[in-house]
């Protein structure tokens, strides 16, 4: 775990401290200079710590909102990491940037309120007790202990850019592949990086909501603060314990035949100790792909009980709603245990990467910051610190298992899956983009269909709508690209659901909900159409509706499903004009949703 705090971009600067760099000699080639951002609270103690080594910290060129921008030599970066640990008992605490402009932008953004624009918020409800209890009853301390022991004794240095670190990734991938037991809905793979160690990801495909993703992770690398590349760094607590907890959650999920409604990804991140390298790369790749991550749980250090509290919930760089959900899991499924709230500082673990990418993340920690494990980042971080057992990690594995089953929903063998609320109050499968129909589609008949985030935007208006225009190939209809996103008109989402909660079938009454961004309550109009066939459409007007407010608003209407195996609804949101299934014009957005009907 790297103890620090900051905002949107975290790179390679954590607790990697080599021998202190010498002050530049006259005539010697100077190091490359880099820009960093650092918390202003760290400047004085870091300056003092560096002074003791004959080094001088440059004066900031800019300060705002508790963040300073300054320029340092590349060799001094490692010195800063050691100084943070010496002066503030933190790792990292600063971020390196490729340019002054990038550093300035980071400082400006750091104090802005966080928005979760990428994630479609889920309603964090508890309704899956039978499956949670089935998982909890099979969590075993011996399995967690064995994984910690294997990682901390076979790879006593798992530094991100040495062969041992890479070999540990290979071993873990093989372990998880064995645990997957050949299930066709499970895939275990590397997420490769430009350094030697790979991150490892095990995915269980969601059964009804595959485009909504739940992440549980920890970091695989370890570090010796004094000698990163070759020093002894067993990392039993930091963070073999977190990886062992995640592994046990994965094991018990497979053993109990658990099939989640949402897709679940178990992750072992490379390079956390050098600045959240691996998690940053993964979270940013998910953001670029538009992946809808509804919740992330980070398990970094789980086996040391440093305080009277059983859990310490990190409240900075995390999501308050998801934190409340996580603590509610403690109250319901481990009612005898206690928790307190803490702040861990800038970039202190991989949850910060997900938060920076716009996703909701939580991190329960094993201690308060003043009672944490003092053996981490040294050769003494072994199982002997916890008397050779993994008892403390058991409660974290149980918390992670309850997080898994209550957020990803679905069920273990013999239990009934509960409803899944995708944030709009319904219990609907989420559509995937269909390259044949050229629109979002739910291929199997369910109780409804939800476009999720696939329709966000309009045409090529920046940011552009993915797969625009998202109208069926048999009746393609172009969108206008005029205007500004979230100022002018756009369709954002379409949902179709049965009124009685039964499977979509001919003769059933269904509700269509269209979420739009409205510019005007008088000039804007939504035309809703349906067709019994998505391959040979004959459009029928459901009605024309005015938004009740400007900004994001949802408009709903009902109709009766006709006979037809693959049907489609169309939402046409326009500024002025008249009703039509397809007519060009300024600020018009056409979007379709294709779904199966019994």
What features would you describe in this structure?
With 598 residues, the chain is an alpha+beta fold. It has helices spanning 43-51, 74-88, 100-110, 129-136, 141-154, 163-180, 236-255, 277-289, 320-333, 351-356, 391-408; strands spanning 33-39, 62-64, 67-73, 94-97, 186-191, 199-204, 209-219, 262-269, 292-298, 311-314, 339-342, 361-362, 364-365, 432-434, 439-442, 448-450, 490-498, 509-518, 524-531, 540-545, 551-560, 566-575, 589-596. The strands form 5 sheets. A 6-stranded mixed beta sheet has the order 5-6-8-7-9-12, sandwiched between helices. Strands 14-15-23-22-19-20 form a 6-stranded mixed beta sheet, with no helix packed on it. The radius of gyration is 26 Å and the shape is globular.
Features:
globular; single chain; 11 helices; six-stranded mixed β-sheet; 598 residues; alpha+beta
Write the layout of secondary structure elements.
Layout: E1 33-39, H1 43-51, E2 62-64, E3 67-73, H2 74-88, E4 94-97, H3 100-110, H4 129-136, H5 141-154, H6 163-180, E5 186-191, E6 199-204, E7 209-219, H7 236-255, E8 262-269, H8 277-289, E9 292-298, E10 311-314, H9 320-333, E11 339-342, H10 351-356, E12 361-362, E13 364-365, H11 391-408, E14 432-434, E15 439-442, E16 448-450, E17 490-498, E18 509-518, E19 524-531, E20 540-545, E21 551-560, E22 566-575, E23 589-596
Parallel strand pairs: 7-8, 7-9, 9-12, 10-11, 15-23
Antiparallel strand pairs: 1-3, 1-4, 2-3, 5-6, 6-8, 10-13, 14-15, 16-17, 17-18, 18-21, 19-20, 19-22, 22-23
Helix pairs in contact: 1-2, 4-11, 5-7, 7-11, 9-11
């Amino acid at each position: 775990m790297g103890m620090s705090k900051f905002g949107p971009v975290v790179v390679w600067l954590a607790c990697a401290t080599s021998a202190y760099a010498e002050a530049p000699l006259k005539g010697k080639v100077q190091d490359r200079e880099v820009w960093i951002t650092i918390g202003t609270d760290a400047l004085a103690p870091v300056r003092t710590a560096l002074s003791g080594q004959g080094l001088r910290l440059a004066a900031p060129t800019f300060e705002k909102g508790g963040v300073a921008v300054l320029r340092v030599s590349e060799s001094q970066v490692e010195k800063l990491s050691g100084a943070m640990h010496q002066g503030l008992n933190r790792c990292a605490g600063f971020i390196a940037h490729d340019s002054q402009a990038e550093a300035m932008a980071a400082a400006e953004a750091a104090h802005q309120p966080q928005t979760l624009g990428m994630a479609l918020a889920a309603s964090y409800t508890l309704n899956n007790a039978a499956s949670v209890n089935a998982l909890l009853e099979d969590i075993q301390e011996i399995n967690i202990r064995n994984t910690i022991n294997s990682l901390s004794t076979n790879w006593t240095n798992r530094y991100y850019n040495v062969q041992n670190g890479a070999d540990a990734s290979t071993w873990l991938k093989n372990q998880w592949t064995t645990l997957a037991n050949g299930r066709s809905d499970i895939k275990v793979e590397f997420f490769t990086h430009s350094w030697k160690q790979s991150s490892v990801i095990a995915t269980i495909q969601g059964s009804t909501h595959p485009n909504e993703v739940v992440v549980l992770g920890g970091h695989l690398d370890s570090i010796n603060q004094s000698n990163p590349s070759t020093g002894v760094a067993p990392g039993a607590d930091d963070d073999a314990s977190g990886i062992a907890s995640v592994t046990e959650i994965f094991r018990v999920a497979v053993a109990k035949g658990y099939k989640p409604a949402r897709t679940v990804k178990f992750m072992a991140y490379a390079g956390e100790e050098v600045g959240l390298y691996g998690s940053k790369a993964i979270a940013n790749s998910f953001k670029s792909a538009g992946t809808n991550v509804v919740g992330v749980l980070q398990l970094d250090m789980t086996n040391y009980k440093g305080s009277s509290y059983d859990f310490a919930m990190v409240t900075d760089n995390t999501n308050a709603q998801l934190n409340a959900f996580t603590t509610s899991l403690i109250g319901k499924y481990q009612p005898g245990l206690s928790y307190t709230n803490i702040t861990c500082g800038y970039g202190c673990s991989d949850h910060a990467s997900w938060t920076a990418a716009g996703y909701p993340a939580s991190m329960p920690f094993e201690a308060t910051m003043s009672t944490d494990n003092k053996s981490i980042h040294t050769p003494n971080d072994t199982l002997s610190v916890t008397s050779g057992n993994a008892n403390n990690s058991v409660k974290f594995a149980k918390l992670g298992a309850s997080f898994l089953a209550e957020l990803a929903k679905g069920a273990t063998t013999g239990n009934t899956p509960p409803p899944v609320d995708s944030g709009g109050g319904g219990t609907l499968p989420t559509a995937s983009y269909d390259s044949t129909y050229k629109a979002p589609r739910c291929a199997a008949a369910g109780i409804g269909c939800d476009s999720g985030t696939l329709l966000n935007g309009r045409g090529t208006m920046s940011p552009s709508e993915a797969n625009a225009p998202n109208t069926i190939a048999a009746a393609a209809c172009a969108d206008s690209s005029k205007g500004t996103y979230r100022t002018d008109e756009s369709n954002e989402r379409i949902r179709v659901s049965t009124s009685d909660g039964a499977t979509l079938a001919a003769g059933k009454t269904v509700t269509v909900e269209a979420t739009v961004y409205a510019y005007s309550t008088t000039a804007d109009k939504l035309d809703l159409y349906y067709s019994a066939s998505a391959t040979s459409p004959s459009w029928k007007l459901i009605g024309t509706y005015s938004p009740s407010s400007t900004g994001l608003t949802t408009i709903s209407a009902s109709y009766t499903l006709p006979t037809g195996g693959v049907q489609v609804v169309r939402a046409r949101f326009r500024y002025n004009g008249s009703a039509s299934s397809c007519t060009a014009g300024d600020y018009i957005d056409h979007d379709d949703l294709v779904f199966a009907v019994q």
